Amino acid sequence: MEEFKSGFVTLIGKTNVGKSTLLNALVGEKVAITANKAQTTRTEIRAIVNRKNAQIIFLDTPGIHRPKNKLGETMLETAYGSMKEVDVILFLVDATKKEITKGDTILLEKIKEAKKPTILLLNKIDLIVKEELLPLIQKYRQEYDFTAVIPISAMQNNKKEIETILSEIEKNLKPGPAYYDIEEYTDQTMRDLVEETIREKALRLLQEEIPHEIYVECEKMKRTKTQTKEPIYQVEAVIYCNRNSHKGIIIGKGGAMLKKIGTYAREDLEKMLGTKVNLKLWVKVKEDWQNNDYILKKFKKQD
Fold first, then answer.
1. Closest C-alpha among 147, 143, 92 to residue 118
2. At residue 109, does pLDDT exceed 50?
3. 63: closest CA among 150, 7, 123, 8?
4. Contact 13/97 with Cβ under 8 angstroms?
5. Same structural domain for residues 171 and 275?
6. Which residue has the higher pLDDT, 207 or 194?
7. Which band of pLDDT confidence, cut at 50, 70 and 90, is reported for residue 45?
8. Most buried pick, 120, 162, 246, 261, via CB within 10 A?
9. Is 302 exposed, middle or buried (0-12, 13-18, 19+ CB in 10 A)?
10. How far is CA 265 from CA 27, 43, 137, 202, 218, in A?
11. 218 and 293 in one domain?
């Protein structure tokens, strides 16, 4: 009988390279929010993949960027710190860049320091011609002895690509126990998922500079019943922003934008929770929260 393996895998890369999209594809469930905006992921998210003879625990980390405040520093600390404590590193890069970028060079140095088996994933291959791929692979191969190099297109959710990645990870794991129940696919609480779902809709709908000025707190989550005895979640959450001008934009004319954020979030939550959701949203101002140590505890990795 084949020995059971388990281990932790960190997924690293620059902002907007497609880490959260790939993580959702690997797990087969939505565990990380996705949006075409930089720094979508703020915290370390754990996602679990259960295979016949292995359990793989993924750590999706914030994208590598130049920090502008304490929040940015916390995110960077989380991303770099994850490499030291895992069994395998997945290094995701953008294949449309014909050279190794400055940000990827910094990450390569961190990978060399970590001395862990590393799989290079060249993402967005659907956007380039095949002839451009081999020279890029050779450039990365010259920099580091990767365990494997796998060209992928995370957006296309190709089952063959997913299986190739998971099989390669499994090869590099050691015998070990299942750390999580086989029914689990993330360590996030239901409140975490609610907050991240609301933030995702705000990221998608709001202007470029607004989304990074917000965070969401779920203040109430209670399972009750409707008058017709159907189960329903009563959810109340606050979207915090930095300034009054942003508050007006988030609410929108006649409350239209806030209503749209709430509607889209509720639809996703109902699919996720498998039941009806009554979602109430408020918007409040909390100036300079990105440098508030008390609030930033929310984004720091918990041991």
1. 147
2. yes
3. 123
4. no
5. no
6. 194
7. low
8. 261
9. exposed
10. 21, 20, 40, 9, 13
11. yes
Residue 127 placed within a domain: yes
Question: Could you tell me which residue, 78 or 177, shows the higher pLDDT?
Answer: 177
**Distance between CA atoms of 123 and 152, rounded to whole angstroms?**
5
Rounded average pLDDT over 143-148: 96
292 within 8 A of 272, measured Cβ to Cβ: no
pLDDT value at position 65? 44
pLDDT, greater one: 282 or 241: 282
Token pair in block for residue 66: 């130049």
Residue numbers of the domain that contains 285: 190-299
Provide mean pLDDT across the span 188-199.
82
Q: Percent of the chain at pLDDT above 90? A: 46
Q: Annotate 25-37 with three-state secondary structure.
A: HHHCCCCCCCCCC
Cβ neighbours of residue 105 under 8 Å, at least 6 residues apart?
Answer: none
Instruction: Please determine, for residue 23, whether its predicted confidence score (pLDDT) is greater than 60.
Output: yes
b (16+ CB within 10 A) / e for 86-111: bbbbbbbbbbebeebeebbeebbebb
Burial label, 249 (beta-carbon count in 10 A; 0-12, 13-18, 19+): middle
Structure tokens at 218: 């779920």
For residue 185, tell me if it sits in a domain.
Answer: no
List, in order, residues 6 or more apart from 142 with CB less than 8 Å away.
none
Same structural domain, 75 and 150? yes
Start-to-end Cα distance in the chain: 34
Q: Provide φ and ψ at 287, rounded to 5°.
A: -60, 140
Sign of CA dihedral 202, 203, 204, 208: positive
Q: pLDDT-based confidence at 297, cuts 50/70/90?
A: low
